[in-house]
Amino acid sequence: MSRLARLLLPALGLLAGCGDDGADPCDPFADRIVSYTPGAGAGFGQEDLPDVVLGPPVGGGTMLGGTDVLSLGSGGELVLAFDDGALVDGPGADLLVFENAFYAGGDPAQPYAELAAVAVSDDGVSWTEFPCRSDAYPFEGCAGWHAVVSTPENGIDPTDPDLAGGDAFDLADVGLSRASFVRIRDLGLGLPAGPSAGFDVDAVASVHGCAP
Q1: Which domain does 161 fall in, by range?
Q2: What is the pTM of this model?
Q3: Most CB atoms within 10 A, among 36, 95, 103, 117?
């Protein structure tokens, strides 16, 4: 668990699974990087690995993209693992993927979007990818087109799909009840100019993994 996540969790009250034995509280964020394959134009945020993609999102709001991110580069890929607080199917969204999209003029229908396909797995071997419509707005099933509102400073729950921002995914949509791994793959639709090309990963969060 990242140091930032340890500091933030008590304030959020996300202590499900923490008993009197001194065990760590349940962590709803990714715990480790399994693999990172940078694409053309990657580089931004690499010096801050792994913490830059672990722990809670640090959103920039609707008008400005956040900078606490890792740029995957054109066609780049990142695989993250949940060692605790795994993804479980519950009511509505189960996974939130946070990028640094923002809205031109504050209009959600005009996002500055860098799109990625998202896949999930329970064993890290067999993957199921969410269908992603990348040809026109709204980019249903893709990540990278909703602004991120939650930050450690504003107290907005980063596991609340209605408040946190980011892109929401429901395991039921792909016929799964749980998952422990998330793969984010940049679709290579933008210019590969570095060092911040491609999808910019801020964080991923399990919505129901730490529920009592």
Answers
A1: 1-212
A2: 0.89
A3: 95
Helix, strand or coil, per DSSP, at residue 168:
strand
Give the DSSP letter of residue 106.
G
Encoding tokens for residue 202? 């801020």
- Of the candidates 103, 87, 183, the one whose C-alpha atom is nearest the C-alpha of residue 143 is 183
Whole-Å CA distances, 143 to 15, 45, 54: 28, 19, 17
Say how many residues make up the chain. 212
Give the number of domains in the chain. Answer: 1
CATH of the domain at 23: 2.60.120
Q: CA nearest 12: which of 26, 30, 32? A: 26
pLDDT in tens, the chain (212 residues): 443 333 333 333 332 333 334 455 789 999 999 999 999 999 999 999 999 999 999 999 999 999 999 999 999 999 999 998 899 999 999 999 999 999 999 999 999 999 999 999 999 999 999 999 999 999 999 999 999 999 999 999 999 999 999 999 999 999 999 999 999 999 999 989 899 999 999 999 999 999 87
